[in-house]
């Protein structure tokens, strides 16, 4: 079981208010403390990046709960509705995550994983990513709604109405049949399904073109680089530089 918490109460309150417009931070923290008393159930914490929050403060606050994993998610956005930026000429989300990376690396006594960062390190070492938002491996997860409906990745709802809808359910189709749905099949094509710019990008083995919803535009569907292209490039290169400084030659950079 994971818990969404975007950071300390002031950070979390930017988007996670209750329907009565009250802070949900205290009740989320109560839930986390309860989970900490049942560590086998505590999968980790999920925070959505907000540029107005201080990345180190957010990281350190989440780490204080000693979760096994901290997952950072980039806000949903498409080329039709790009994410907010204070200065579009700066890879602000990439910079934000590099500050998390540096904080995470500076505290080796903490045992948690930061999933996005650990995946970038793993992909640079030739290991598959554990999430579908990075790398070129076909996604291995599916969403089952509480009424038995099977959907593609549920975050596609941020793209357009019906984008995640497959018209399948657990009562009449097997998972193997669903795997051959046209909306999922193209995701088995790896690099060939990506935009030309991504196919020729030196970072494609690690980046994978970014998270599927973040590639969308009405004109070209999913054949675009991610709206976070510059951020992903900045972050991946920062991690690669750090690996080199630690004497580790990233495999993704090594010529075949
Ligand atoms: S989204 Fe950008 S960094 Fe990622 S593979 Fe495509 S071109 Fe490269």
Helix/strand layout:
Blueprint: E1 2-4, H1 9-12, H2 25-36, E2 44-48, H3 55-63, E3 69-73, H4 92-105, E4 113-114, H5 115-124, E5 143-144, E6 149-151, E7 165-169, H6 175-179, H7 182-185, H8 196-199, H9 204-207, H10 229-245
Parallel strand pairs: 1-2, 2-3, 3-4
Antiparallel strand pairs: 5-6, 6-7
The structure holds iron/sulfur cluster (SF4).
List keywords for this structure.
256 residues, alpha/beta, four-stranded parallel beta sheet, 7 strands, 32% helix
Question: Can you walk me through this structure?
Answer:
By secondary structure, this protein is an alpha/beta fold. Among the domains are: 1-73, no CATH class; 143-180, no CATH class. It is built from 10 helices and 7 strands. It has helices spanning 9-12, 25-36, 55-63, 92-105, 115-124, 175-179, 182-185, 196-199, 204-207, 229-245, and strands at 2-4, 44-48, 69-73, 113-114, 143-144, 149-151, 165-169. It has a 4-stranded parallel β-sheet with strand order 1-2-3-4. It has a 3-stranded antiparallel β-sheet with strand order 5-6-7, with no helix packed on it. β3 (69-73), α4 and β4 form a beta-alpha-beta unit. α3 packs across α4 (92-105) and α4 (92-105) packs parallel to α10 (229-245). The longest helix is centred in the C-terminal third of the chain and has 17 residues, at 229-245. The N and C termini lie far apart (41 Å). Residues 197-198, 201, 203-204, 207, 209-210, 225-226, 229, 232-233 line the site of iron/sulfur cluster (SF4). The site of iron/sulfur cluster (SF4) has 13 residues, from α8, α9 and α10.
């Amino acid at each position: 079981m994971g818990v969404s918490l975007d950071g300390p109460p002031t950070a979390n309150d930017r988007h996670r208010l209750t329907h009565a417009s009250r802070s949900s931070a205290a009740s989320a923290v109560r839930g986390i403390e309860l989970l900490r008393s049942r560590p086998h159930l505590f999968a980790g914490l999920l925070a959505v990046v907000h540029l107005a929050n201080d990345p180190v403060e957010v990281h350190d606050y989440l780490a204080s709960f000693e979760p096994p994993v901290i997952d950072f998610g980039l806000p949903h956005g498409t080329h039709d509705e790009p994410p907010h930026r204070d200065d579009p000429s700066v890879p602000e989300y990439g910079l934000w995550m590099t500050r998390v990376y540096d904080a995470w690396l500076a505290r080796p006594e903490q045992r948690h994983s930061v999933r996005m960062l650990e995946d970038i390190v793993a992909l640079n070492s030739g290991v598959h990513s554990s999430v579908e938002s990075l790398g070129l491996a076909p996604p291995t997860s599916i969403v089952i709604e509480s009424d038995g409906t099977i959907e593609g990745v549920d975050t596609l709802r941020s793209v357009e109405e019906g984008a995640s809808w497959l018209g399948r359910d657990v009562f009449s189709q097997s998972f193997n049949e669903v795997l051959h749905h046209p909306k999922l099949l193209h995701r088995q094509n790896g690099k060939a399904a990506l935009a030309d710019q991504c196919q020729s990008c030196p970072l494609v083995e690690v980046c994978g073109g970014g998270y599927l919803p973040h590639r969308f535009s009405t004109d070209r569907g999913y054949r675009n680089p991610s709206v976070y292209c510059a951020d992903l490039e900045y972050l991946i290169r920062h991690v690669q530089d750090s690996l080199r400084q630690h004497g580790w030659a990233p495999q993704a950079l090594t010529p075949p």
